[in-house]
Design a protein that fits this description.
By secondary structure, the chain is α/β, with parallel strands linked by helices. About 40% of the residues lie in helices and about 20% in strands. The protein contains 13 helices and 14 strands. Strand 13 and strand 14 form a beta hairpin. Helix 2 runs parallel beside helix 12. The radius of gyration is 21 Å and the shape is elongated.
Amino acid sequence: MRIPKTALLISSLTLFLTACGGGTTPAPASTTPAAGGTAPASGGGGTAKTVVKIATQSPLSGGSSVQGEAIKLGAQLSLEDHKAEFEKLGVDLQLVPYDDQGDPKKGVANAELVGADQAILGVVGHMNSGVAIPSSVVYEKYSTVMVSPSNTATEVTDRNLKVVNRIVARDDFQGPAAAEYAVKTLGAKNVFVIQDKTAYGQGLAEAFKNEAEKLGSKVAGYEGITVGEKDFNGVLNIALNKKPDFIFFGGLYGEGGLLIKQARDKGITVPMMGGDAWDSAGLVDIAGDKVKDALYSSIAADITKTEEGKKWAEKYKTKFGKGPDGYSAYAYDCMSVILNGLKNAMAANGGKVPTREQVRDAVRATKDFQGVATKVTFDGKGDNTYAKVFIYKFEGPTYPGAMISEVAKK
């Protein structure tokens, strides 16, 4: 874990960082009034309002930027939908997007900037569990609540930090659900497992592997690749020699798309499956028509299956000029949960802007909150008791895949 930045370094950074746009890190607190301070009402006149900011942390550049931007945009849409409501309460809501680049060190550095900006009362993110785990230690220090739309590693909430929450399923639920589908539905008897050595990928792969073995399937191989690699001939040659009837990959869509393409080019025709990180248009962009018949487990439902979800997706497309990605609606719900906690904390604080601690506790107390994508009730660790896992299949080079199974926690 990176040592927190000194006050001198944070002060120096503030001189150079500008508001986020196109993947840059936003300006810290010194450019806007802190919570408890005031800003002019829009239009340059009228009653002054208290500025309250909510940050996002996700990769806005690099190999996972498609999903990272989806998180930012989903959160942005929710904040804008609630802006008028908070203006009536005397609050000027502002979004502060940070690019964590999918890098733990960058996430921690950004988290220090978030903590230094007293106007920031919550964070939507992160996308990557490996970034969320060290960054959340900083949030805990500053009592800044975090709600994640995509973190699945068990360690994220098992540390019992007061600020950490997520609205999606854990790896110890997703991995076994994927393995059960592979073994019981597809009849996989000889599986080959690959993982990308990240906290997310390794955790998911091991959960899949353990459950597959428990269900009676043989694990023919368990191999690791490195994020950023482009040539997977080595691991795929091992897979060819093992003659598996099913391949599972725990890792991100950038490497996943290349694995699918190179496996099919090499003549490997057995079913291939990934986790929720494959739930992205980015996978299709990389794998092309070779993505056909690829499977993925996801922590995200296809919201277009409901009328309300279809309306939301159309609104998102109208706003941003493209359809929602896998985490878009979940980021929307994360922001909505934070803002609901903020509103409840304000009510309990006599209508005044609450402290970070008060917002943190109000968010953790969320019960039966109905979002666009999921219902939310947090348990004592910050896990959502309503989280589900979904199985999808690509019927062609079009995103999203077809949802073919839904698994509720037993």
